[in-house]
Amino acid sequence: MSAEATSDRMSEVSKKFGISPEDYMLPARHMINLLNPDGSLRPESEQGTEPGHEYPLPSPARLMEAYAALVTGRRVNDQNSALVRQGRMAVYPSSHGQEACQIAAALCLEENDWLFPTYRDTVAVLTKGVAPMEVMTSFRGEWHCGYDPKAYKCAPMSTPLTTQLLHAVGVAHAAKLRGENTVVVAMCGDGATSEGDFHEALNFAAVFNLPVIFFVQNNKYAISVPLSHQSAAPSLAHKAVGYGMAGERVDGNDLMALMAIMTRAVRMAREGNGPLLIEAHTYRMQAHTNADDDKRYREDSEVQAWIAKDPVTRMKAYLDDAGLLTDQVVAKIAEDAEAVAKTLRDGMNQDANTDPRELFEHVYSTKSTQLAEQQAMLADELDREEA
Amino acid sequence: MTATTSRVNPNVSAATARAAAKAASENQPVTFGKALNTALADGLVADESVVIFGEDVGTLGGVFRITDGLTARFGAERCFDTPLAESGIVGMAVGMAINGMRPVIEMQFDAFAYPAFEQVASHVAKMRNRTQGKLSLPMVIRIPYAGGVGGVEHHCDSSEGYYAHTPGLKVFTPSCVEDAYLMLREAIDSDDPVVFFEPKKLYWSKEQVDLEQLAQEYEAKKSAPTEGRARIARAGSDATLITYGPSVSTAMEAAKMAAEEGINLEVIDVRSIVPFDDEAVCASVRKTGRAIVVAEAQGFASVASEIVARVQERCFHSLAAPVLRVTGFDIPYPAPTLEKFHLPSAERILDAVDQLQWEA
């Protein structure tokens, strides 16, 4: 796409909102936030914050669906952390505190839309529909990816930072060439925005005008390095304008705001308006992983302050006030979350039983002579062990 | 000429014109570059999921003109330019391959591919494995490589060792016009990612090859697959030169000079570095009892080292002398006026032949 075409597209979009292209592309002056920390609706929420940055409130049914997923997500994080302590899993990067981001990223997509997650996005992957034990195959140390990415339209959880953003761009480009109406959400953290592939992915997506939503979970730390040492930009969302796409800042602990902003972003992308960058402000409540000691780089008071902004209690308060959470509904949601946790406990308590001979099966489409020889050697070792 | 005749005499049938054009093409030698260009075009015709992209491959037709005319013939959706970003090109290809396409991408020059190495090593090579075979990445990464063309810094690296060392990748490098066509067609059709190394110094080399016939043979699968198959470039009985890509012509030159001294060298062109043809290589060494591995890349921890080790392990009792290497020195690729001192020459190969412990 030429610079002129990009500019035409921007003019069209900005006309739609009655604002200049620059105002459309620049994030709203304030972070998009619909619910107060106590769960009350902010007075300006109904109208949005500024022209061009107006968001429809999600329907009660939609919010209930999202809340149920949120409760399950929190339960899954807690269960997995417990399983690590019990020695059932080597490592688990918890997204405790970030669950609202995870739910919104996955729930706003349709079945044929793709999700590109990172290693911390277990809850998003579950919400996309991947079976719980298939999600955990990797953390269990059994195989690097335990699910069929094509079947779920969910890429393997990427350990290398930011590289998967380019794959998201490629999936979107292939879909566009074939005339398929696919939207792709590519997830990454604040640290990932410093990597070179972040630049290349955003630039490619904008130049080719692709329906990709870059969803940045700014949880304030890349292991120990704080955001202030990661970027000197006014905000991570501001980076979007440099590529010719719109950027938005949203309260990443406000599920309602996330659902509203993501729903609009998906619609915009699907209508051919090109990529968008969304920066969700949230906080990693626990250490990077169990191998990390977060007391070395942040004060406990800082962590405690974020408890007041917890996405689960905030959403619960709103739905309670709205009279949507009857005892029966609360019990059902808790029961469903517990069922997922039980699946994880039961699955993790079983011994892994992958056949080591399979190591050689998925290197190439056809096994080379050399790999067949090495496979036979291992098989022989195993046979002698058993004998 | 044919066109002019047709205009003057409208009675000349189209079939006659085609026959004349074919006869003319049969008489015309074909360049290595043209064979690659034809393979790309035929690949685009054969499978609509094939797409070609990279920097300068569209309107310009590639800096070496290997993609010349493809955008005009197939449209900008099938052959297109990207922003200048190697990691972006490879990473986007990964996504397109995940979503059902067969990308054929160009890295323009060997050392320009290094920014994309993370994508290649972490994702291209591993996607099939990490997903237990659920996702395959049928893609070709074309890398013009090696020296002998007076290139400036970062334009002459022999980087095949990095890729050959990475499980999950196939690594091909043709050394003749026929292979340029056949191996690129095979690479495009492969269900695995192929790093396809094109020796730059061969782009303008010409041979008498009938590309149309070659295409028909390929379509009918009459020709033997080149993947995992070494080629006997010259049959001989006294010693084996094992080599590939740009060094094949140097080895052939050395063999010709040795023949004048009464030594009959066999030259094996490895063709497909990964997968590797142990059988053909070892059969030759067992026959001759002596072997030298020739490659442009620096010798330390190289493809050449690997071949030497494999031959020693498998043919030890057939060997009359240690297996030697003639490679580039263990230095960064030198500036153009000095490259002739670095590159393995026919003379250097013959010096090694002299060391093969011949009986008096």
3D structure, described in words:
- The complex is a heterodimer of chains A (387) and B (360).
- With 387 residues, chain A is an alpha/beta fold.
- Chain A contains 14 helices and seven strands.
- Chain A has helices at residues 3-17, 21-25, 60-85, 99-107, 122-127, 132-136, 149-152, 163-177, 196-207, 255-270, 300-307, 311-321, 327-348, 369-386, and strands spanning 114-116, 184-189, 212-218, 221-222, 225-226, 246-251, 276-281.
- A five-stranded parallel β-sheet of chain A has the order 1-2-3-7-6, sandwiched between helices. In chain A, strands 4-5 form a two-stranded antiparallel ribbon.
- The radius of gyration of chain A is 22 Å and the shape is globular.
- The mean pLDDT of chain A is 93.
- Chain B is α/β, with parallel strands linked by helices and 360 residues long.
- In chain B, the strands form three sheets. Chain B has a seven-stranded mixed β-sheet, sandwiched between helices. Chain B has a five-stranded mixed β-sheet with strand order 9-11-10-13-14, sandwiched between helices.
- In chain B, strand 13, helix 13 (303-315) and strand 14 (324-328) form a beta-alpha-beta unit.
- Chain B starts with a helix and ends in a 6-residue tail after the last helix.
- At the A-B interface, helix 7, helix 8 and helix 9 of A face helix 5, helix 6 and helix 7 of B.
Name the assembly state.
Answer: heterodimer
Kindly name the structural category of chain B: alpha/beta
Biggest beta sheet attributes of chain B: 7 strands, mixed
The N- to C-terminal Cα distance of chain B equals: 62 Å
Quick tags:
heterodimer, A: 387 residues, alpha/beta, five-stranded parallel beta sheet, two-stranded antiparallel sheet, 14 helices, B: 360 residues, five-stranded mixed beta sheet, 17% strand, globular, disordered N terminus
